[in-house]
Amino acid sequence: MTDQLIDGLYREGEPIADTKAPDVPVPEMWTRRKFDAALVNPANRRKLDVIIVGTGLAGASAGATLGEAGYNVKSFCYQDSPRRAHSIAAQGGINAAKNYKDDGDSVYRLFYDTEKGGDYRSRETNTYRLAEVSAGIIDQCVAQGVPFAREYGGLLDNRSFGGVQVSRTFYARGQTGQQLLIGAYQALERQIAAGTVQMFARHEMLELVVVDGRARGIIARDLVSGEIETHMADAVVLASGGYGNVFYLSTNAMGSNVTAAWRAHRKGAYFANPCYTQIHPTCIPQSGEHQSKLTLMSESLRNDGRIWVPKNAEDCDKDPRQIPPEDRDYYLERIYPAFGNLVPRDIASRQAKNMCDEGRGVGPEVDGVRRGVYLDFAAAIERMGEEAVRAKYGNLFEMYEQITGDNPYQVPMRIYPAVHYTMGGLWVDYDLEASIPGLFVAGEANFSDHGANRLGASALMQGLADGYFVLPNTIRAYLAKGPFEKVAEDHPDVQDARRSVSDRVERFLSVGGTRSVDSYHKELGKIMWEKCGMERTDAGLREAIEQVRALRQDFWDNVRVLGTADGLNQSLEKAGRVADFLEMGELMCIDALHRRESCGGHFRAESQTEDGEALRHDDEFAYVAAWEWGGDGGTPVLHKEDLTFKAIELKQRSYK
Amino acid sequence: MKLALSIWRQDGPRAKGRMVRYDIDGVSEDSSFLEMLDMLNEQLIEEGEEPVAFDSDCREGICGMCGVVVNGSAHGPERTTTCQLHMRSFKDGDEIVIEPWRADPFPVIKDLVVDRSAFDRIIQAGGFVSVNTGAAPDAHAVPVPKEHADRAFMAAECIGCGACVAACPNGSASLFMGAKITHLGELPQGQPERDARAVAMTEQHDHEGFGGCTNLGECTRACPKGIPLNVISQMNGDVRRAGYGHR
């Protein structure tokens, strides 16, 4: 490690590398790794305990699969039932290289599209494997009874998604996530009935227990009784989702949080590429300060809707139907004539924000800016007829009307970008093992597969790939070395972890300040959105770091958490999550500051082409930034993992 | 708008509950019902009173975690989830009574939060297809006629919120259970366990203390996902079939 402090913010440590991917050509790796991973005799599996935190697609599928295999699984979720995990809200579909349409799809093409879509910032080996196991996911889900869309012949239907040219997306109307999650949940409940999985709903992991350098358990709080519990195991799996709620307003569920991952980070797990956030371009705009959540509208709307803002700022509060065509700026069609309204997510999002920041946004003013652009179906209604539009988008139009009170058949919809998915996460190797041995990370909680941007319909694929197929195979290589010596609950490291949790709970309740937890969360969200959102600058990020630090200080001096620790206390739950977001936000800004290139959902204003397009710097930044916790009051340490590409060639993007 | 709220407050599972009146002003009609409660909670925290506990998570009508009885109706006056109920459904000056789901098998944990784990136990009894991971046949190996797939999908839309139980004068979970039995019963994958599933799930349902179905239809009127009453007929058919036709 260098002693030199860079930018006054961080130090650079030793480079790191994945050591688990076998040294064979990429297409042969997974087969080889599965063969090389030691087996665990069924009789010995019963002696091995695995903790899984999170019950979304990755966590529930991993729990079900490991339970079936015969391990003792303890599964945790903060919701009242594992069926509520936020994977349930994913709409569009799940990709798989089945080539059922015989349109030229293949494992290699799905791998290629994923790498390109992620702006070449994901690890080639993991991404290839994701594409490789994708086909098996569909088979597994169909066998479970997941009701995918079918054609009249009884076979599965596919559609294309996210700008790719093949139809590889399997879907269940607009509820693919829900149906896949229910499938995994049912498989999990089956194992609960069989006694291989023990379920702890309404429980939150608040600390990772590390003994002799290995993950050996967690400290969790029973959210109903308030009791702080110790759960020990031979291995710990985090499948706790992303951290998009650092922005407060996002498409994530209210309870989605970074705590499990952040607590592991503080115990030594590296956090990779934290600044990579995906922004979704077609969400329903914020209507006011009361708002708690942003609702995503399917991106398929961009196939027929035309996006515009008034040419003149003084027209912005007019009824859009009164603005004649010559006074409208169809800005995507103007700037990107080849792709028009179908430019990729990051471009569509950034341009919408630019229009609003310029003063040409529409809809209600929030914090002095109108944050909305029109998505207009008038031309589509004229061309196809209202009935055809209704058949194609009826449910979305109804949802929009339900939320906004406006009828989109008559008045153009308003949309605005929103935080949707985080590509960063805990650093893992090819085995999905974090930098703490015995800690595995699956789904959105890890960093490995999506690079700087996620392809549409790939989140569901990764969650299930990790949970059903990857993790159960790789974790056995680790568990084969066990069972590890039992750690007693009075071991000093366990006691320390417990004490840190109870001290923290006590501290929240004793500050006795004047401001609610939510008010801090909202303020943090505004800083992050403005300065570490879809467009970032050197100066803005430096300001954000100072502001986040000051806000964190104020939080600990002035937060008000009422009630007690010995029962259900939702303010207390939120306080813990927001305290962790206040640390996470700073690391996101530091990561964004150091990455002086534009890529994926991250547009760095200093790095653009003459035309204002995102400019990547592969010569300088083709690496994973894996951050090591520097201790309270210390500085984080950056470990770089060089991304090497053997199966694929790096290309610059162009959508002109 | 200005509203008068009467909210069920209960400190814990064994504590005695009571209705408490709160006045709130400045509610935007664009707020969701839960955002209105968030606003009330901010007001309560400022006044030093513990905020009202209520369940919610996705806030976009999918996860099924939210749910309160509003003026006597599960999820309130519109046929949607509480998180998708907007304040424009109310008028300035309205009085609104807010209670938790009322059903014995859903005991109150605190304020508006209830324990719905009985639903998970009903699923554990047989609401799944017994297939282990890794050896499934190709997805195209078993075609499913579109009308069966569509009906299975319709039933699979159930989000497990519990409004059907809260709305039923008998406290029956038949709509929830019928939805799962129909979803899996419509598909070839669900056939081998079809009889056993129907019997095991209904036995668990009764064991949990849910009441019997008398076809009043309140459940389907309250269901935010529009699950139709005929899933209950299908469930009854499967139970009968298991008892008489195939044994």
Automatic annotation (TrEMBL), chain A:
Its EC number is 1.3.5.1. Keywords: Cell membrane, Electron transport, FAD, Flavoprotein, Membrane, Oxidoreductase, Transport. Residues 49-460 form the FAD-dependent oxidoreductase 2 FAD-binding domain. Residues 521-655 form the Fumarate reductase/succinate dehydrogenase flavoprotein-like C-terminal domain. It catalyses: a quinone + succinate = fumarate + a quinol. It is an enzyme of class 1 (oxidoreductase). Its cofactor is FAD. The keyword Ribonucleoprotein does not apply. The active site is at 345 (proton acceptor). Its main location: membrane. One of its GO terms (cellular component) is plasma membrane. GO terms for molecular function: electron transfer activity; flavin adenine dinucleotide binding; steroid dehydrogenase activity, acting on the CH-CH group of donors; succinate dehydrogenase (quinone) activity. GO terms for biological process: anaerobic respiration. It is found in: Cell membrane. Pfam families: FAD_binding_2, Succ_DH_flav_C. It is a peripheral membrane protein. The keyword Metal-binding does not apply. PANTHER family: SUCCINATE DEHYDROGENASE 2 FLAVOPROTEIN SUBUNIT, SUCCINATE DEHYDROGENASE FLAVOPROTEIN SUBUNIT. Belongs to the FAD-dependent oxidoreductase 2 family. FRD/SDH subfamily. This is succinate dehydrogenase.
Automatic annotation (TrEMBL), chain B:
Its EC number is 1.3.5.1. InterPro entries: 2Fe-2S_ferredoxin-like_sf, 2Fe2S_fd_BS, 4Fe4S_Fe-S-bd, 4Fe4S_Fe_S_CS, Beta-grasp_dom_sf, Helical_ferredxn, SDH/FRD_Iron-Sulfur, Succ_DH/fum_Rdtase_Fe-S. Pfam families: Fer2_3, Fer4_8. GO terms for biological process: respiratory electron transport chain; tricarboxylic acid cycle. Keywords: 2Fe-2S, 3Fe-4S, 4Fe-4S, Iron, Iron-sulfur, Metal-binding, Oxidoreductase, Tricarboxylic acid cycle. Residues 149-178 form the 4Fe-4S ferredoxin-type domain. It comes from the Bacteria. Its cofactor is [3Fe-4S] cluster; [4Fe-4S] cluster; [2Fe-2S] cluster. One of its GO terms (molecular function) is 2 iron, 2 sulfur cluster binding. NCBIfam families: dhsB (TIGR00384), PRK07570.1 (NF005746). Belongs to the succinate dehydrogenase/fumarate reductase iron-sulfur protein family. This is succinate dehydrogenase. It comes from Ornithinimicrobium avium.
